[in-house]
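Collaboration report, partner site 2.

Our partner group contributed sequences for two proteins of shared interest, and the home lab folded both. The records are reproduced in the order in which they were received, starting with the first partner submission.
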Amino acid sequence: MAVDRAMLDAHRAEEAPATLRLYVWNRPTVTIGRFQKLETVDREYCAAEGLGLARRPTGGRGVLHDHEITYSIVAGVRDGLPRGVAASYRVLCGALVEAYRELGVPAEMTARERGSSATGACYLHATAADLSLDAAKLSGSAQVWNADSCLQHGSFVITRDVAREACVFGLGRSDARVLAASTATLSDALGAPPSSAQIIDAVKTGVRRVLGVHLEETDLSETESEHARTCVEQYRVPISDA
């Protein structure tokens, strides 16, 4: 999360170009939205299961990251991204739709919002920033703007452990059943899990096709790496009150 934030700040300062980042997690980790209350997560369960816990620089509800490829895109007005959350979501999620279709999944931007405010689990809710397969939510995205620069990140979920996710967010049996019935993964859609390399190639293709950009693989700059190190504590969440 600190790296994503550092990329955004570097872009705003015109010290870095528009950037696509693709990454995985070294252990299952829960991220919560910038303004989300800690009480929406069962931290005792997370501690007992050895799960990580972090706060995101973006808003939204809690996500359990596990068997997935996570993406982040940093871009801004100077790159041709329209200003404003709704307009920029349409552009960036359009690239994600192309990525899913490259994998053989006919994803669409979610037609209507659904869900209640009673739980902190992102995947029990659907917004216009999400992608769906028929009526099932495939993935969600979250944004934050810094002046004319935008960070958007989200997940390409390969498989989902509904039981674990329900425990993380303290879902009752009814909500757990809704979570299982109203979400879909890449494995569900394709009948078998795609490889990480296939997903990464598809995301690159979608971004190139929709945004009309050339992608050049590189490392973080020294400035971004140092800034990320200084930001880490902002996004660290204690797994217990002890």
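Second partner submission, folded after the first:
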Amino acid sequence: MGLVHRKPRLRHRQPASKLLLKSVWVAVTLATALAAWGNLKAQSAGSPVGDATGDYDFLQPYNTLAILQEDQMVKGYIDVLQGQSESDAVLSYPITIGERKGNQVDFRTRRIHEMYYRFSGTVQQGKGKKRGDPDYLELVGELQTIQSNSVTNQETVERRQVVFKSKGKNEQEP
């Protein structure tokens, strides 16, 4: 048998301008994707919430934390449903000192029956899609429940990490 000579195959080469165009397209696509991801991350993690005003669930069912934000001042109250052994059906602890700086929220309530609350944390977007939805906003931080002993003038502080979720608007409200 005879030897068959074949022509060597030449690889098809693209002109340099096409390679440059493809490289630029890949770089632009990658940069756009990274920028979009960065914007999404910034919005979800650190974008400021405009107004923290609203009603939030507080520790147990039927308890409410109501916040009214006016500029950097935080006002409101905490309504706590008392047990059957207590004389008052609901104790309302007015917020006496409260402020918001950026997403940081701090407040303290008035003392009632030798007890008051302090909160320090942040306001952030919850899982709700729009204002008025349940869990549209969340207050996340440390709640301190302070018990005072009027005889010894000592305070006992109970600290706990909490997430207070906004209640949303009731469909029947105007």
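Feedback sent to the partner group on the second submission included the following. The longest strand covers residues 137-149. Residues 15-47 form one domain.
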